Amino acid sequence: MGEEISVGHFRKEDFSRYQHRLDAETTQLQQLFEEGALSSRHGRGGFELEAWLVDPAGNPAPINKDYLALLGDEALFSPELSQFNVELNSTPQWVEGEALSLMHEELQANWSYCRRVAQRLDADLVMIGILPTLDESMLTLAHMSDMERYRALNEQVLRLRHGKPLQLDIQGTHHLRTEHGDVMLEAATTSFQIHLQVDQARAVRYYNAMQILSAPMVALSANSPLLFGKRLWQETRIPLFEQAVAVGGIAGAAFGPVKRVSFGTGYARKSVMEVFAENRDHFPLLLPVDLGEASDRFAHIRLHNGTIWRWNRPLIGFDEDGTPHLRIEHRVIPAGPTVVDTLANSAFFFGLVHTLAEQSEPPEQQLDFAAARDNFYQAARLGLQAPVDWFNGRHGRMADLLPTLIPLARDGLRAQSIDEEAITFYLGIIEERLATAQSGSAWQLKWLDHRGSDDMSGLLAAYRAQHDSGKPVHQWTI
Q1: Which of 76, 107, 330, 431 is the most buried (most CB within 10 A)?
Q2: Rounded to whole angstroms, how far apart are CA atoms 167 and 177?
Q3: How far is CA 124 from its chain centroid?
Q4: In terms of DSSP bridges, do strands 226-227 and 387-389 run parallel, antiparallel, or are they unpaired?
Q5: Quick check: 225 and 272 in contact, CB under 8 A?
Q6: CB 432: neighbour CB atoms within 10 A?
Q7: What stretch of H or E contains 178?
Q8: CA-CA distance, 388 to 402, in Å (whole number)?
Q9: Tens digits of per-residue pLDDT, 272-330?
Q10: SS3 state at 63
Q11: 132 cis-preceded (ω within 30 degrees of 0)
Q12: Which of 76-90, 112-126, 248-262, 452-466 has the weakest average pLDDT?
């Protein structure tokens, strides 16, 4: 959600001023794209992990202000929308050599430290896409993190909706329908977001490859089958987030088909600048903060871009020497179930995206965007059992497609000189997860079926015990 802002209430002239500066920065960025002046450095990866604070009974614990004060180091740990969520950030690594092992060591160390600090507040930290014990009554403005940015976001979303409540309507095994008067529904989702810095010359290939591999990634990593006691999609975060901030575009299209949380409107054609231009042209401003004059730091583009949550989102950052660079944020993966599962997901992603993006025939020429989009939502709904379309007119279940993608991920990791031992270890976890058909979502549903009840507190206790065993999810028992 980005950095804090200084004010949360805006006047008409604030929107006009911000729009003028956003236009100027967009023109400037367009010129850099045309000149090929963005950074050519490529292949630096990092991630953000969102997590839940829970009390001894496993219920959400709205204590992130006190918790973050104890944690310290604002560069590594930050608040999320709700007081019971926090975010852990990584140190970016060039995806080569020992990168995966270094990422693993850092995340494990930070995760262990975070849990120790939580215990000082008689609480704990859980990595899971949606907390089973969450009740809708917890999602109130009283539990919003104490940040002006979030209060302003809520106010502006409701303004664009003309005061109409957010409507949640998700059909899965059960059917969930509810109305909510603010944006706090979004706080029910926690994710693991991978960032990859890309060379401008290859950015289109990588952006489009990430769109295509979103379906395999969401099926493979699903860990959010439950919301408010109901069994919904294998990855319920996807429809939940899309409906939790349901505002669309300009010119009266706030209730139109293109939303601020979406899979996007198509592949990039000539440049990912097309995405930044669409963000400027289609989506109304939410946070028109006075950031000073337009500048080559692109503050207005970056803030506006941060209020549009595409599942694959191009970002502007900066190299150490100040040269602007492109990163793409892959947002489809849920938090959890364990640190090692998270790194296995990352290994599969870094390898597969490299192979798809670098192959001689661009993958977007082999699969229509509509098919990639439909694959994504089918995979989010049905997981490994989802029917999908693939290259060369292939059709079948995701469970049958994924084993054919593991060799491509292996080739991609080898091409980036990742340690062979790490490749074998992390992709071995992916292979075993597929062989057992046991994702985090599958395990949660098996546990409920085995118990013959909807004991969400018992489920979370069992989930935490299995997590603490240190075993990847494919080895978890009921």
Answers
A1: 330
A2: 7
A3: 22
A4: unpaired
A5: no
A6: 15
A7: strand 175-180
A8: 11
A9: 999 999 999 999 999 999 999 999 999 999 999 999 999 999 999 999 999 999 999 99
A10: coil
A11: no
A12: 248-262
Q: Please state, rounded to an integer, the average pLDDT across all residues of the chain.
A: 95
Q: Which two tokens stand for residue 68?
A: 């973050």
pLDDT value at residue 453: 86
Cβ atoms of 219 and 349 closer than 8 Å: no
Instruction: Return the biggest CA–CA distance within the chain.
Output: 63
pTM of the model: 0.96
- Chain-centre distance of CA 90, in angstroms? 15
Which residue pairs, CB below 8 angstroms and at least 24 apart, start in 416-422? 416/43, 416/95, 416/96, 416/350, 416/351, 416/354, 417/96, 417/97, 418/95, 418/96, 418/97, 418/99, 418/100, 418/347, 418/350, 418/351, 419/97, 419/98, 419/100, 419/101, 422/98, 422/100, 422/101, 422/347
Strand partners, 333: 192
- Strands 309-310 and 261-262, sheet pairing: parallel
Helical H runs in 61-184?
A: 64-71, 99-120, 148-160
Task: Say if CB 34 and CB 310 are below 8 A apart.
Answer: no
Give the three-class secondary structure for 326: strand
Angle (CA) 44-46-51 rounded to 5° is 175
- Is beta strand 44-54 parallel, antiparallel or unpaired with respect to 93-94? antiparallel
The Cα–Cα gap between 209 and 272 comes to: 13
Structure tokens at 94: 């060039």
Q: How far apart are CA 194 and CA 30, in angstroms?
A: 25
User: Helix H segments across 36-87?
Assistant: 64-71
Structure tokens that stand for 33 in this block = 């794209």
C-alpha of 311 from chain center: 7
Q: Which residues of 96-107 are buried (b: 16+ CB within 10 A; e: fewer)?
A: eeebbbebbebb
DSSP H helices, 128-202, are: 148-160
Q: Give the span between the Cα atoms of 368 and 209, in whole angstroms.
A: 12
pLDDT for the residue numbered 253: 46
Within 13 Å of residue 461, how many CA atoms lie on the same side as its CB? 6
DSSP structure string for 228-274 = TTEE--TBTHHHHHHHHT----STT-TTSS--SEES-SS--SS-THH
What is the number of other CB atoms lying within 10 angstroms of the CB of residue 154? 20
- Rg of the chain over Cα atoms, rounded to whole angstroms, equals 21
